[in-house]
Specification:
Blueprint (H helix, E strand, L loop, with lengths): L1 H63 L3 E8 L10 H13 L3 E10 L4 H17 L4 E11 L1 H6 L4 E4 L4 E3 L11 H7 L23 H26 L16 E3 H7 L4 E2 L2 H9 L4 E3 L6 H9 L1 H11 L8
Parallel strand pairs: 1-2, 1-8, 2-3, 3-4, 3-5, 4-7
Antiparallel strand pairs: 5-6
Helix pairs in contact: 2-3
Amino acid sequence: MSDDLKSGDERSWKLLEKTLLAGVQEQKRARRWGIFFKLLTFVYLFGALALFAPQMDLQDAAARGKAHTAVVEVRGMIADQEPASADNIVGSLRAAFKDPNTKGVVLRINSPGGSPVQSGYIYDEIRRLRAEHKEIKVYAVITDLGASGAYYIASAADAIYADKASLVGSIGVTASGFGFVGVMDKLGVDRRIYTAGEHKAFLDPFQPPKDEETAFWKTVLETTHKQFIASVKQGRGERLKDKEHPELFSGLIWSGEQALQLGLIDGLGNSSYVAREVIGAKDLVDYTHQETPLDRFAKKLGASVAEHVAIWAGFAGPQLR
């Protein structure tokens, strides 16, 4: 009787072992198939990228081979290391002017502004290129927003166009921050800062402002504002209605329809309208500085997906878990 029980237990254990092994093998199979299909998906995506990128390049090359309107985008914050940095915009403009088939340049703007230094660099380069290539006109086209530094840049163009509902203007300068002195007093926290130079820490938010330093900072902003106004007046000339509307340089922002009446813009229209009706070359060619297709694709995938791809492909380094 005990032998029969022993034999039955052995059969049960063997059956359980087979079941567990089968489950493990099934999990391995499922994991391998999962990895296969994931890799297949990425191979397909990369293949599609490799297939369509050359076609887009060919289409662009075909358009460049005949008379066309060059387009340079100014999108987002105007600042160093940003897509709308002076280096990127200036390089794009030079490439557009250099092409013998460029009949006109559209500076397509959708930006809240940014650095006065970067905006000034672009402004100066537009005026230099216009003087060097008198046969090529530059038209700024404001889409949703052309404010502050973005309008600074636009004012260097031969003419400015916008939609009737675009936001245009904000000719002013701002510098902002926070003050934490009251909070620190309530918490009983002392600020200790050591400087060489009486006013070295005058922008420190953890110290109360001093009247003379506030007055000094205001003169810096006013000087920059005057530079801004002078550049806009130089670019726009007699088209501005600033004598009838002294608030033009107050930092206010207007709709495109209002901006037209104030002389801030010259007409209502989009990029296609300007290319077709004003420049006379309806084909648009984008000269905006672009990342490589692979860079754009990698950014869209995201860091976490890229990490998984590396692990699946066997490129991941040692990891601690």
